[in-house]
Amino acid sequence: MAKKFVAVNENVEGSNIIGKLVYYTIGKTMVAEDRILEILEECGISTDILNKKHTNTQAFKTATSKVQTGRIISRDGNSNVEDVFKIRIFDNKKEDRGTKIVREIKKENIMEKTNKFVYLGNFIYDKETDTMEYSLVPSNIKDLDYDIKASCDLAMTEFEMEKNGFNEDRMATLIDNYMADQLQGTRVQIHGKLWFIPIFKNEELIKIENFIETVSQENIRDGLVEIMSIPIMDEEKYIERYTREFHVMAQAEMEIYQKKLTELMKNPSTRSSTMDTWMKKAQQFIEKKKKYEELFRKDLEEMDDDLAIMNRQLRELEIRRQQKAQEESEGK
Predict the structure, then answer these.
(1) What is the pTM assigned to this prediction?
(2) CATH number of 57-163, picked from 3.40.50, 2.60.120, 3.40.630, 1.25.10
(3) pLDDT of residue 13
């Protein structure tokens, strides 16, 4: 039975609160992807935020990468000689016309003049059967003071979980996308998971808070998954601080749009739908700047020259988009 959330308006717009400082942390996480889709729906968040589909090839690489180790030190009881090594995973060639992906398992001997690698075996993922297997070289692992077989067995289990699950990396990407796109947030530079969220996005913030709280309850791993938000008062020192943070982020974002719009204008084969997508993104950025200026009651005039260039690009690209759309329509 779907659990329904009601977004509560905290009645903070129009008060002396300019926004919220939001911090989130994502420890080791694993929730079934089907359940993630349900939770998003329960919280009123579009599943479009998931962006591109997770592939089983990615699951294979994630699972096998966990076999890698840090430095391991073993000591021979008789000779008192130390063996210092790491277990490493390397991508190898694709086999059978690309239907199989191979990753090699190697022992890297440390503290020699030149680190040497010993081949221990490999993992193979078969795309056609969607199965993973591994093989080890008995003669190369017999004297290894490390249970490499147990580690490979664990990778097999991890692969099955990763195929249909949502891990901490995918969760962090989802939340960052939501913070930037849906909440029009500004990343605070002192910490990668700290965001300033303008108060006019408070109701959307409540949705992601509900989402993270539910994911924390569903997490089958022991990692901490939580989100906290602190109201920021309408005081000059805070306005100055977050105006600077917004400017740094906005400048970088604007450069991306300018570069992309230039590329689209130079490429005569660009589809009208592609032009339309990037034009909407650029226009959303311009609207976002206006909203932040209203929030901070400041004219971010140092960005005006760059915005004027981008507006000219948008006008020219709109003419080309219309021409291209007509050509595509006539060519059908």
Answers:
(1) 0.64
(2) 3.40.630
(3) 46
